[in-house]
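User: For my dataset I need records formatted as: sequence, then structure tokens, nothing else. Please produce one.
Assistant:
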Amino acid sequence: MTRALKGSGFLGLAVMMAVGLHQFVILSGGSAVPPWMIGGHAHLGVLSILAIVMGFAVPALGVTGTLRTVVTVLFIAGQWGIPGIVWLGEGFGLAFLMPTGFLWGGALIVAMLIMFYKSITQPADAVGGGPAAGIPGDD
């Protein structure tokens, strides 16, 4: 499951970069980039970086079983749903999709609350829960 989070994160960054290049082409042609395109681009970028971080945080916090699946599915749905509805709703005139933003945002919030719960309830000596071992300097 963490492979899905990391993979979704890297794919999201690639899509975000492609959209960024498209925005550059628009600007180079002398036109303004539509605000809906900028908003979707920014959200996909940030959420994709967080998906990669989540891919490492889930096993570090010992999230397993059904909770691991729930966190993964909810986060990936929110990662793509938030920018997707901005692009589809505003950019392609499918405004009836805009209320689903509450669904995608809710999915992200629930995933984060599960991670919050796991982060405060794991024992201090669990994987990722204790102090980091000192790493000798390379000087």
